[in-house]
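thought: fold this chain, then report.
action: predict
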Amino acid sequence: MANSLKTRILNKFRLLNQLPFVEKWLVSRSLNNDAFARKFIGSNYLYRTDTVRRCARRGINYELHINDYLDHGIYFGFRDSEDFNRDSLMKLVRVGDVVFDIGANMGDTALHIAQILDNKGTVYAFEPSPGVFKRLKKNVDLNSFTNLKLYNVAMGDTEGELSFIGTKEDHTGGAFVSKEIKSDTQVKVLTLDGFVQQNGIAHIDLIKIDTEGFEFFIVKGGEKTLRKLKPKIFMEVSDSLLQRAGSSAKQLIAFMESLQYRCYHAETGETVTPDFDFFQMHFDVVCKAV
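observation:
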């Protein structure tokens, strides 16, 4: 009860950071990794829906809805924290690469990859949410990259339509496509194999997949592409989310092994096999053809 009261009191003080001069100071300090100043930054849920800020971070221009968890973290410069650190993914990108970003959200990852490619490769970014896709397109339009191609679709193991399950406005990154849960919002679904064939893509260097548990169905729908083109795969593994979608972490890794891929923990480098202890684990893997 004491902690709850303490939090409520702190949140009252944190509302003050919405005053323009206070917010400006907090942003400046947080971008310089000031841990003390960060204690006074209000959580994203304290901001009203569609609280928008325009800013530049690491050479990329954004329009950020800071009531949303991801946008809030970018705005206040939480790049060094676990949820916002992309180093293990970005070190896989080389100038000239062809990269697929499946589950692109508002574009942060795709924009950073485009920046690394220096307009000498291509990023194909896929985001199924109609609302979030608009934000993705807006952020791309605010920059001058010419190597980004955007698609308002989901990826899966069969073409058609599936239910899109939204979340609260304070964490749109938690939304997901589902075969199991029905909703009034339906989104178009393509397969990786179908997309590659229809667009005549002969080379892919890297595929990033972060789809809140739908990863198994995406790689299943890209079996021919993975066997033939052998791109590196960087994807999220969460057994609880995969089971919600109708698969499992064990099934996902076993399928990757059947395609002659070996998977590694993105942070530790540890080999991840179907016998790995996935209980209550949530991490990224890098999968490479062998």
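thought: worth noting. The first strand starts at residue 52 and ends at 57.
final: tokens above.
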